[in-house]
What does this fold into?
Amino acid sequence: MDSLDSSVIIAGQKLFILQGDRSDSLQWEKYGFRLECPHGAVSKDTEVAVTALAGGNFKVPKGTVLVSAVYAISVSKALLKPLVIELQHCVDLRKTSQTGCLKFVRAPLKSPYQFSIVEGGSFRVGKRYGSIKREQFSCMGIVAEMSNGDTPSDSESEEGYETPPEGSTDDTHNDSGNGAGETSERTPPPINTGLFQESVTADSNQKVKVESTFGASNVSNESTEDEVKQKPNEDKGVTLLYTGMMYHEKKEVNQWMTTFSVVRDLEVLQQYLVNEHPEAEKDGPIVSFKYNQPDCILQLCLQDTPSLESGWTVHPDQSPMQICQCVVDKFIDNPMCSSIHISVYAKPGIAKDPLHCPIKLTGIDPSKIVYINRTPPLLSMNSTSSSSSTASISQTRRETEEGMVDINIITH
It folds into this structure.
């Protein structure tokens, strides 16, 4: 996929090898991607290359917002039958009427990444994956349509651009090699540049208000509704889901930087965050939540700060500790912009008990409490022991030297 430019941020890459003499169900859920290959859909040793993109200069149809990662997909040989791909999205689908606001989109494998809506695709109530059959591949993603035609803060409109229809000359020549005039692509090395998602004009009659709310709540998997095809619907609000993660990075033997970061609830972004901080120690489970209302603020409140006698110091690097939903949406690929940093210090020889400091998260439904958990480093105890040993040795040495002097005096 050499045609991918430096504006994209690569979170992960995967190569699937299909045989064609059997059906295959391939999972890459670590990055929110699934692939179904029916029997006889491909010839022997067909390669499907998938690159999960955490960000890039993506232009989505006007009135929509990107609610999935973008996946650059290429196939080494022509397909005999369509493949089924499933992509994770971050929308909390609770009603059948809400499924119509989600659409699959595609874009060429080179800049500018101007996405157009793809007809078809299925979404299920209470599920976090959408599926679609495809014979042609390029950059694929999922968008949510909005009722008022406006996009949230992470999107900007580009006047005068008409979304090219699927299969037009504008994007067909950049698709993967599946027959239909497509070519293979290779992927360039990742370059971390800022995400910038724009909106462009698109013909669409189905506009649904999107309440872009904070939080990543676990969606119920107990829904008994059958798979629902996309269809026109009334103005039904849907909620974007987010997730919070706490981790620690050691600065000194007895000092840590504790960070609480919020991203959209997508496996790709969570994995990207982990990859960006390979030395960090994750603390506790991933927090799932959503905002009380659109454009709300998540606030972190320290509940019981440790006493000076405990030997622990917990000091936020900013006050108040707030993360705005609009900031998370604007800097999707840069979790540091939607993070709170807290300095944690254990005084050597004094901090002997573990730290269990509660932080209440407000502005979300439901409110939650997370904990900073730290254990005093062994070095602080060893240092005390070492100091005691040194003092004992010094005392013994003085006593010995005094004894030698006394002996000398007696001898004379």
Notes: The first helix runs from residue 169 to 172.
